[in-house]
Specification:
alpha+beta
Length: about 550
């Protein structure tokens, strides 16, 4: 008894006082190190204590030669109501086959049951009802077979958006000789929308998913010569007895997380105040990677001065072999950029099988501007929807159109108004006009991704036409006022949720005399079909007219 009393006193001394917030576990504390100074307080003002968020932990082994992933995944969360089950989404399974399988479910250590709900959705049925407010831990074994990525095709085909209704994930879950992209491999509950309903899954057009904020701790073991890449704090690398390496990453309060496994990549970094911008690219693309790193630092600095700080200490730029017209993909703390696009920008002649003399004049500059704008767009997503959450499936205009408009502003802030006008004419409003010239029909942009017939139409209306609303809002309110209002929008909804009407609502509240004009602008640009009137004739300077294109197509058909 005498020997145990000091230990008991020590234990009592270390306990938090009654009513104090629960102390974060060491695992959650590791995730919290990913946040910048002051960000935890801003997040907790909206989300509550971060240690109470869902905690997703995974320990995976990746075998690139077999294209396999195996391991354990666990999710701890606190239900707000008594629960008998939990649904989990696996986005890779939405596109043709069950490439990711879950088995051996346990709930608080007791065997549970898995029930298929949809291609990308499973339900874990608990052995008994669990009360509200009690922390629940669901554990599962995971086994995945990663499909081979598209190979042997021209980089131009990888950069061309689909014009048919096929469902695809843009190469987000695919294996290539030097990289495996494992986006969506971690099962997560569907996002809970403000009305309490469950967010829909991916449709094969637009983004794949967005989730409720969670802390994520990820351990990935890969063979010798390979590396794992994810977002957040890099918590170390450990050699394994089999000669491989175990990588660990922790990230707090993230709405999504990506995992890539690479070979032969080089890394470089730039320090920007208290943010480290890091690039990871194939070795033969080291030169464009360095340039993109400099460009990212400049763009991010300009954006943060106007929109406020991004939340994480590290921002990673990673080359990924994307397809289907995707120039990049966004995740909190990490963006991917299309390897085919980077290759085409760096070596246009070699990539297309042409001599340098056959490369059109100005092609290198045009492709470079395309890549830089893709980077600016993905960086803008760090705020929309990384911080200002919104539904990318039901209301893609809420984040995509604003990210496109902010990217144009960022080009203007860093390279001048003339550069921004050129990018707009080539890649934003010009993309809409090109689509119309090729026969696309104008329509409403504000609709769910499932309502678009194909990726080309979606891109033209959401990325090409819809950003014009924000251009007109800026023209109505004035440059400096609009930028201040954007900062107010971020501050108002930081770590929270917005919908397609939230920005117009905030602008109307701040400028009541312009409220009706602002609402009318949103109806015109997003809900009606005035693209030709508002953006000009369906022709692009220097390009053939619609009649000339039709004549050429008839000749080709003959």
């Amino acid at each position: 008894m005498r020997s145990t009393m000091p230990l008991l006193a020590l234990w009592l001394a270390l306990q938090p006082p009654a009513g104090a917030a629960e102390v974060a576990s060491p695992e959650v504390q590791a995730c919290l190190t990913s946040l910048r100074e002051g960000e935890r307080g801003r997040a907790e003002a909206v989300l509550g204590p971060l240690q109470a968020l869902p905690f997703l932990e995974a320990d995976l082994v990746v075998e690139p030669a077999e294209r396999s992933v195996a391991g354990r995944v666990s999710l701890a969360w606190t239900p707000k109501a008594a629960s008998r089950s939990l649904e989990l989404r696996l986005t890779p399974n939405a596109f043709g086959s069950a490439v990711v399988r879950l088995h051996q479910p346990l709930v608080n250590g007791e065997p549970a049951t898995l029930v298929p709900v949809a291609d990308d959705l499973v339900r874990v049925e608990f052995p008994r009802a669990l009360p509200a407010g009690e922390r629940v831990r669901v554990e599962l074994q995971l086994l995945a077979r990663v499909p081979r990525g598209e190979t042997g095709s021209s980089p131009l085909s990888a950069l061309a958006p689909s014009s048919v209704g096929g469902r695809a994930d843009h190469g987000a879950f695919a294996a290539y000789p030097e990289a495996l992209s494992l986006v969506g491999i971690l099962p997560r509950p569907p996002v809970t929308l403000p009305d309490g309903s469950r967010g829909a899954g991916p449709t094969g057009i637009g983004d794949l998913a967005l989730y409720d904020a969670a802390n994520v701790l990820l351990s990935v073991t890969v063979p010798r010569g390979w590396a794992a890449v994810s977002a957040g704090a890099a918590l170390g690398e450990t050699a394994t007895a089999q000669g491989g390496t175990r990588f660990r990453f922790g990230i707090a309060a993230t709405r999504d997380v990506a995992l890539l496994v690479t070979r032969g990549y080089r890394s470089a970094r730039r320090q920007l105040a208290d943010v480290t911008v890091e690039s990871l690219f194939p070795g033969d693309l080291a030169r464009p990677a360095e340039r993109l790193l400099d460009e990212a630092a400049e763009l991010l600095s300009a954006m943060e001065r106007r929109l406020g700080p991004t939340p994480y200490r590290t921002l990673r730029l990673v080359a990924a072999p994307l397809t289907g017209g995707a120039g990049g993909m966004e995740f909190p703390g990490l963006v991917t950029l299309s390897t085919p696009l980077v290759q085409l920008t760096e070596h246009p002649g070699r990539t297309l099988g042409l001599s340098e003399a056959d490369v059109p004049a100005g092609a290198t500059e045009t492709l470079g501007a395309l890549l830089d704008f893709a980077l600016a767009h993905e960086l803008a997503h760090q705020w929309f929807p990384g911080l200002v959450g919104s539904d990318p499936i039901a209301a893609p205009v809420a984040d995509e159109a604003l990210a496109q408009a902010v990217a144009l502003l960022a080009v203007e802030w860093t390279h001048g108004a003339e550069a921004a006008r050129a990018v707009d004419a080539q890649q934003v409003s010009g993309a809409y006009r090109m689509w119309r010239m090729l026969g696309g029909q104008d329509a409403a942009a504000d609709r769910a991704t499932s309502a678009f017939p194909d990726e080309t139409t979606y891109a033209a209306l959401v990325y090409g036409k819809a950003p014009g609303l924000h251009v007109r809002q800026r023209a109505l309110l004035g440059d400096s006022v609009f930028v201040r209002d954007l900062r107010a929008y971020v501050d108002t909804h930081r770590w929270g949720w917005a919908d397609a009407n939230s920005l117009t609502a905030l602008l109307s509240q701040r400028h009541p005399g312009q409220a009706e004009t602002l609402r009318a602008l949103q109806r015109r640009w997003w809900s009606e079909a005035h693209g030709d009137e508002d953006l000009g004739a369906a022709e692009v300077p220097g390009m053939p007219s619609e009649a000339e294109v039709e004549k050429l197509m008839r000749q080709i058909e003959r």
